[in-house]
Each structure stands twice: as structure tokens, then as C-alpha cells.
């Protein structure tokens, strides 16, 4: 076969085409000479250059690479002033780009391959930089020529650098010319002549030099063993005319019966941004984070990524999917099965009581049966820490992909201790990965999972009509005298519980954290919320699709001197009584006390219109999907952005006949605004922690609302009364 036998397009775009698998791999498989002028020289660019060269190198091909050094301002200044020999400065700049940060299997194998090719004289790298009366500069031309054994040539050029970012994330394009296509032959000749001039260092105002020391360092740094010429086959397994040649009889038999691993269903078409996220994840060697707003298809994007990796590995893969709660696992299971997977569901439920037996058998089968080499397990966070499950994971011989939904939870030490090198491939899914007031836990997540491959914000989701727009109505209520007294007493006690952390910042000790939780429950359970809710919900008492979201707290009665008294009624009970008894609405509670079957029935009655309202605790934080919610009354105050951003996102899921949603947010302040002017400076300062926390939520909810002026007017009013703008200006000085 030759280049002429390949289907070669005139243009490839990185978000439309899989440039690696559709262009580089099939063409380089036929090549005997690969000449490439790229952007900056680095370990990352070397890894990308290696994709496709294994076959041609094994077949006796030759590779010539021209790259440019990344020179810092200090480097250029040193060259201009003659501080040091320019070639020495360039050499040092090149050395800085050779890092040890790549430890995953494919990167290590690829760098080892290239180091061997350089040592054997198969691959040669030269460094180019401009040198004219304007001074020293970088060489930026991007082009390449691929030639086969018959002398057929393909030339290409364009904006694409040999880097993961360019190949997978940015919207890049290359133009392609074939010398057997009539007038395109001239373009190919021009590209080859230009490269030859560069390679031989006869191009005006351009220096192209060999740096033997760089080649030596590359060999010493990255050559670990014999080269793995099959690395492309391992990473990009695919049933095309190249890889079919390598399939065994057993593989053919299984393939003809259909894939044993996941595939994207024919009736599901992923959006461009989902494909882009998957492409970026592949570019990061199948590691990364999908930071996507609730309701934008995070689960399907994750499943699409699983399908892509499994196909690339010819289904020789074990997938461990972890979700926080049982009902989220159940939601995943339904979608997983659509993607041609039969998961082992692992958690303590009678329906899945034999999961341990199934898992141990599947792990054994995967080692000895070709038709059972794909394995999928889904479990809750709690089950993931189970000793038996961890032991079985350690026994798996196939590469393992760990997928964690609502991955922010895994920043906690109880989960993060299980994040280790057993998992070659990694994917974190979360609308809010950064952990609130936990920089250390957040750093653990980024260090393990890698970079964000997509950041699809709620603002973008509304603009692109993936979520419904909304109106936001902040309702002011105030702490009662008893509540305010308790709040201030707890604040005073908390001030005694500050300790200095390793980073030099002050934080609460264990006792302080307990007191902070008690204080937050006072705000969440403020008694005025009940009367305010009754008044706000009155106009909706004949409507459907209503959610009232309560805090996991008790209500302190005005006459009660003990806010911890067990006689206090739970807020959810008080709310249910108001809606059901006083307003005559059909209502049901939706909490952790209801089992899976009861929850499913409540959701059905709610969606069918038999239930007007759901009164819930925690369901929006736990990922329950009820798209038909149109009006939400949020009594549960929280200062944690992760929680209130998730709650809003779940209310905004699209549903038939839902042109917009409405959110009523019960904002709790210490005292009426008209009473603030009579406070002493000390009293006003004590108020400001609560005020600023509530204000942050109003600002976040209000900025994207259809009626943003309603929130802005309240924001301005609160800031003016508490002189917050003056404080901000003073802090900026």
C-alpha cells in the first residue's frame, strides 16, 4: 500500500476531525520519510511528534524535526548584551523544556521510543531561530512532508503546533496537499524545497543548527529500555485498515459478534463541546477534569470518554465509576447500559447482595477470557473505600480507568488516600471541583486527575439554551432576638477557637468547627422563614412543579430559651404542615428517610401533576434529577458556593413547557436594615460575617437572572447600610 491508497482530505480541523487517528497514524504507517517543522521544542511536543512514528521507524523510515527554542526575556537580553555565548544560552533554554513531569505509561513509552530513535540515528532534531538586524527571534512556521516508498509525497501546513493543547483543545486547522493531485504538486514541491533549505541552513536570516548535547541529554534522560514500536497500536486501537492487520483470530471472532466494551449509541449525538472535552482528555493521555454545569450532559460526556478509551484499547480495560449516593448510582446505571456496558453495581442493597461474588469472578474472567476482558464496576463513595473492593481493584491486570462523579468529595482525606497509581486513566466530573475553604483538598484533586479539559459554565449553558433562564427573588428575613443572642454568643466562643495553620492562616479548631455548625443551623432554621414562606407561596397554592428546599435543622420558637431543646420541631415538618394543612396543597416529603422505591414514586406523581409540591432536604445537593421543577423556595441558607450553585443548576434543568424557572431565596440578616444605623461600630462589625456571606449568594444568583435589577437594588441597599463599599475601597488602597 502507499499514500495514494489513503483517504486524505484537503483540510483537517481539530474539533471536527481526530487529526491523530485520521491523518497522522494512517499516513505515517505508509511513510519512509517524515520531515516536520514544528513550534517550540519541549517534552510535550516530543510526545505528540511520536504519535504515528513507531510503524515507520520499525520499517526503516527516517524522521527529521526542526523546532524552535523557547527563549525567555532574560535569554534574549543576555544574547543582545553579549553576556554569554548565544548557542550556550539556547542550549540551556532547550534543557529547561525537558521535564520529568510525565509519569503515565504512554508518555514514558513515547519518550523512551524517541530517545532510542535518536540514539540509533533514525530521528534527527535541529533547532531553528531567526537572526537578522532586528535581533534574535523564534521560528514559527508549521509544516510537514510525508513520503512513502514509491516517492509519493503529502505536504501539510497550518496553525497546528505539535502540542497537546493544539492537537486536542484549541480550534486548529491544517491544509493538506498531495503531489499526485494535479496542481497540488507545485505546493508540495514548494514545501519540500523550503524544508530542505532550512535543514541545510541556507535560508536567509535563519539559523538552523545541531545541538549534540541536547540529543545526548534526551537519550540519557528518557531511554529506559528497548523501544516499544507498538505504542500507537496500544493507545489508538481502532478497527481500520491498519489495525485490522494486527488482529488475532480470537479478536476477529469477538469483533464480528460486536464490541464487548462501551460504544456511543447510534441514537445519541454528542454536542461539539462534549466531543471537544473528550478530545482534550485524550490529548492529556486520558486524564483530566470535566468541569460542567449541572444539566449540560456531564454524564454522557463521561460515558463518551469511557467509550473512546475502551475503543482505543480494544476493550482491554477495567472501569471503576464512583458516585456519592445510591440514587446517583441508579441514575448512572440506566445510562451506562445504553452505552453497551453491563455494570457490576456494588453497594449494600438487597438487590445487589451478591456484588462481591460477581466482582471476584469478573476479575478472574478478565485475566483468562478474551470475551470478558472489559469490566465495569459502579459503586457509592462509601463502597469505594470497602476493603474487599480495594483488594479486587489491586488484582485487576488490565489498565484501569477511575471515573469519579461529584469529584469534589474526593478531596477529603477519607477518600483521597485511595487515589494512587493503580489507576492509569482518570476522569473527574464536577460542576464545582474546588473545595470550599479546603485548598489542600482541592490541590490533591488537581494533582491526581490533572487539568480541566472543559469548563462549561452555567452562564454559557443558559446562553446556549442547555439550561432554562430564571428569575431570582431574594426575600429578606431577620433573626429573632433569641436567635440573634445565640448567634452572637456562638460567634464570641468561636473567636476563642482560632489556631494558626501551617500556611500561616488562622482557622477554627475542632471545637470551633462544631460551634460554626451550630451557628449555621440557627441561620438555616430562622423562625421568620416560615411566615415569609407562607406569604410568598400563597400565590402559587394552585400551581404544580414546586420545590421547597429546607435545611436539616430545627426551628427555634420565640418563647424557647433553649435552642438545642429536642422539643423544637424540624423545619421540614413545619413547612409540610403549612403547605398541606394550612394551604391545602398536595405535598410529599423527599428526604433520606424515604427509600429508593418511595422516592421514585414521589418523582412520578410530581411529574404527572398528582403532587403539587415536594418538600425536600439535601436532594439538590445529592444530584436528584427532577427537571420539571419550575418554582423553588430555598429556605436552606448556605455560605458554601458549591452547594448553592448546584442547587440553582438543578432547578434550571430543561423540561417541556418550562420557558423559565423562578427561585425564591430566603436571605437571613441579623436585624432589619433600618436598625443598623443605631448600632455601634463593634456591633455592626459582628453582623458583617453573616451579611457578607448572604450577600455573596445574592450576587451570584442575581448576576445571571432575567430580573437582575431586583437583586442589584437589594445588594446596593445592604452595602450602603453596612458601608461595605467603603471597606472594599479601603482594602484596595
Automatic annotation (TrEMBL):
For the Helicase ATP-binding domain, which residue ranges apply? 279-451
Q: Which InterPro entries match?
A: ATP-dep_DNA_Helicase, Helicase/UvrB_N, Helicase_ATP-bd, Helicase_C-like, P-loop_NTPase
Do the record's keywords include ATP-binding?
A: yes
Domain Helicase C-terminal, by residue range, is 532-696
Q: Name one GO molecular function term.
A: ATP binding
Listed SMART domains: DEXDc, HELICc
Q: Which Pfam families match?
A: Helicase_C (PF00271), ResIII (PF04851)
Q: Which PROSITE patterns match?
A: HELICASE_ATP_BIND_1 (PS51192), HELICASE_CTER (PS51194)
Would I find Repeat among this entry's keywords? no
UniProt keyword annotations, A-Z: ATP-binding, Helicase, Hydrolase, Nucleotide-binding
Protein name (database record)? Superfamily II DNA or RNA helicase/HKD family nuclease
- The organism encoding this protein is Catenisphaera adipataccumulans
What broad taxonomic lineage does this protein's source fall under? Bacteria, Bacillati, Bacillota, Erysipelotrichia, Erysipelotrichales
Amino acid at each position: 500500500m502507499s499514500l495514494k491508497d489513503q483517504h486524505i482530505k484537503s483540510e483537517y480541523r481539530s474539533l471536527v476531525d481526530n487529526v491523530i487517528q485520521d491523518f497522522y497514524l494512517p499516513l505515517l504507517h505508509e511513510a519512509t520519510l517524515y520531515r516536520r517543522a514544528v513550534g517550540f521544542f519541549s517534552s510535550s511536543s516530543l510526545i505528540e511528534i511520536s504519535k504515528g512514528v513507531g510503524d515507520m521507524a520499525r520499517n526503516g523510515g527516517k524522521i527529521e524535526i526542526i523546532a524552535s527554542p523557547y527563549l525567555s526575556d532574560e535569554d534574549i537580553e543576555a544574547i543582545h548584551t553579549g553576556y554569554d555565548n548565544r548557542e550556550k544560552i539556547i542550549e540551556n533554554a532547550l534543557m529547561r523544556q525537558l521535564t520529568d513531569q510525565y509519569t503515565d505509561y504512554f508518555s514514558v513509552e513515547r519518550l523512551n521510543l524517541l530517545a532510542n530513535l535518536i540514539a540509533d540515528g533514525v530521528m534527527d532534531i535541529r533547532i531553528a531561530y531567526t537572526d537578522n538586524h532586528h535581533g534574535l527571534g523564534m521560528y514559527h512556521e508549521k509544516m510537514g512532508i510525508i513520503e512513502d516508498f514509491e516517492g509519493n509525497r503529502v505536504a501539510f501546513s497550518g496553525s497546528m503546533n505539535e502540542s497537546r493543547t493544539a492537537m486536542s483543545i484549541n480550534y486548529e486547522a491544517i491544509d493538506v496537499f498531495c503531489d499526485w493531485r494535479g496542481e497540488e504538486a507545485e505546493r508540495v514541491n514548494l514545501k519540500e524545497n523550503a524544508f530542505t533549505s532550512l535543514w541545510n541552513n541556507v535560508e536567509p536570516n535563519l539559523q538552523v543548527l545541531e545541538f549534540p548535547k541536547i540529543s545526548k541529554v534526551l537519550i540519557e534522560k528518557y531511554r529506559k529500555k528497548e523501544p516499544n514500536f507498538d505504542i500507537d497500536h496500544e493507545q489508538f486501537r481502532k478497527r481500520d485498515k491498519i489495525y485490522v492487520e494486527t488482529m488475532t483470530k480470537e479478536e476477529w471472532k469477538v469483533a464480528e459478534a460486536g464490541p464487548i466494551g462501551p460504544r456511543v449509541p447510534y441514537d445519541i449525538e454528542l454536542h461539539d463541546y462534549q466531543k471537544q472535552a473528550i478530545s482534550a482528555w485524550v490529548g492529556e493521555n486520558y486524564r483530566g477534569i470535566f468541569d460542567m454545569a449541572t444539566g449540560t450532559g456531564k454524564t454522557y460526556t463521561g460515558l463518551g470518554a469511557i467509550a473512546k478509551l475502551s475503543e482505543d484499547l480494544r476493550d482491554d480495560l477495567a472501569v471503576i465509576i464512583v458516585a456519592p449516593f445510591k440514587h446517583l448510582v441508579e441514575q448512572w446505571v440506566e445510562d451506562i447500559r445504553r452505552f453497551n456496558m453491563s455494570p457490576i453495581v456494588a453497594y449494600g442493597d438487597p438487590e445487589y447482595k451478591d456484588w462481591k461474588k460477581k466482582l471476584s469472578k469478573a476479575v478472574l474472567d478478565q485475566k483468562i477470557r478474551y470475551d470478558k476482558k472489559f469490566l465495569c464496576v459502579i459503586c457509592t463513595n462509601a463502597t469505594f473505600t470497602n476493603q474487599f473492593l480495594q483488594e479486587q481493584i489491586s488484582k485487576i491486570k488490565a489498565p484501569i480507568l477511575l471515573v469519579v462523579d461529584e469529584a469534589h468529595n474526593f478531596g477529603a482525606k477519607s477518600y483521597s488516600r485511595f487515589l494512587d497509581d493503580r489507576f492509569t486513566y482518570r476522569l473527574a466530573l464536577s460542576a464545582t471541583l474546588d473545595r470550599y475553604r479546603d485548598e489542600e483538598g482541592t490541590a490533591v484533586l488537581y494533582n491526581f486527575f490533572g487539568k480541566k479539559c472543559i469548563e462549561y459554565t452555567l452562564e454559557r449553558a443558559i446562553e446556549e439554551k442547555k439550561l432554562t433562564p430564571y428569575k431570582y427573588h431574594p426575600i429578606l428575613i431577620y433573626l429573632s432576638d433569641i436567635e440573634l443572642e445565640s448567634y452572637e454568643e456562638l460567634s464570641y466562643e468561636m473567636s476563642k477557637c482560632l489556631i494558626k495553620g501551617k500556611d500561616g492562616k488562622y482557622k477554627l479548631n475542632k471545637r470551633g468547627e462544631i460551634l460554626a455548625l451550630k451557628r449555621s443551623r440557627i441561620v438555616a432554621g430562622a423562625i421568620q422563614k416560615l411566615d415569609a414562606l407562607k406569604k410568598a407561596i400563597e400565590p402559587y397554592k394552585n400551581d404544580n412543579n414546586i420545590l421547597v428546599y429546607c435545611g436539616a435543622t430545627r426551628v427555634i420558637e420565640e418563647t424557647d430559651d433553649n435552642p438545642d431543646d429536642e422539643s423544637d420541631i424540624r423545619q421540614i415538618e413545619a413547612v409540610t404542615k403549612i403547605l398541606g394543612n394550612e394551604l391545602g396543597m398536595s405535598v410529599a416529603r423527599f428526604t433520606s428517610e424515604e427509600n429508593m422505591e418511595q422516592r421514585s414514586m414521589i418523582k412520578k406523581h410530581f411529574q404527572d401533576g398528582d403532587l403539587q409540591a415536594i418538600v425536600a432536604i439535601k436532594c439538590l445537593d445529592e444530584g436528584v434529577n427532577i427537571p420539571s421543577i419550575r418554582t423553588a423556595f430555598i429556605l436552606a441558607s448556605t455560605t458554601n458556593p458549591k452547594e448553592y450553585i448546584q442547587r440553582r443548576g438543578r432547578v434550571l434543568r430543561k423540561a417541556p413547557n418550562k420557558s423559565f424557572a423562578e427561585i425564591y431565596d430566603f436571605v437571613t440578616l441579623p436585624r432589619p436594615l433600618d436598625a443598623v444605623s443605631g448600632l455601634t461600630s463593634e456591633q455592626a462589625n459582628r453582623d458583617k460575617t453573616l451579611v457578607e456571606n448572604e450577600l455573596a449568594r445574592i450576587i451570584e444568583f442575581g448576576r445571571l437572572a432575567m430580573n437582575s435589577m431586583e437583586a442589584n437594588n437589594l445588594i446596593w441597599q445592604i452595602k450602603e447600610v453596612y458601608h461595605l463599599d467603603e471597606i472594599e475601597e479601603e482594602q484596595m488602597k
